[in-house]
Design goal:
By secondary structure, the protein is of the alpha+beta class. It has a single domain (about 1-140), classed as Thiol Ester Dehydrase, Chain A (Roll). It has helices at about 1-15, 15-20, 50-65, 130-140, and strands spanning about 25-30, 30-40, 75-85, 90-100, 105-115, 120-130. The chain has a six-stranded antiparallel sheet with strand order 1-2-4-5-6-3. The longest helix is centred in the middle third of the chain and has 16 residues, at about 50-65.
Length: about 140
């Protein structure tokens, strides 16, 4: 389990978008991941609430980590996120759980909760399993 956690922490550190946006991993277990965002001024929209893009990015990261617990490589294929309410201060948390894992696609459900466990958003992400060597050829480092 220590090796698994260490590999997930390394993966988290390599995700510069999440680091830059203060989205952090809380925990990752087989088929489940929890991420959090402590609301900062730069996390807010023009109305002083958490920006929907910040909530979406946190949900996508949580779902991505949950899907990657099988050791394969995946990319987000499609998603639907339903915004229900918002908040301006405190912490928001995304909990992602794999609902179905197939040979080429995986469905992940995500709930985003705010203070006192209030549901802020909920959604689903479908991931496509990829050949990492092909992706590595396309990405210039």
């Amino acid at each position: 389990m220590e090796d698994f956690t260490a590999s997930m922490r390394k993966k988290e550190a390599g995700n510069q978008f999440a680091v830059y946006n203060h989205i952090e991993m809380v925990s990752v277990e087989q088929n489940e991941a929890v991420f959090r965002l402590n609301i900062r001024p730069e996390s807010k929209n023009a109305y002083g609430m958490v920006h929907g893009g910040a909530i979406y990015a946190m949900a996508d990261n949580a779902a991505g980590f949950a899907v990657h617990t099988d050791g394969r490589h995946h990319v987000t294929q499609t998603s639907a996120l339903h915004f229900l309410r918002n908040q301006s201060e405190g912490t928001v948390t995304a909990t992602a759980r794999v609902r179905h894992r197939g040979n080429t696609t995986t469905l992940v459900m995500v709930d985003i909760e705010g203070e006192n466990g209030k549901l802020l958003a909920t959604g689903e992400f479908t991931f496509f399993c990829i050949d990492k060597s092909i992706m590595d050829q396309k990405v210039k480092k």
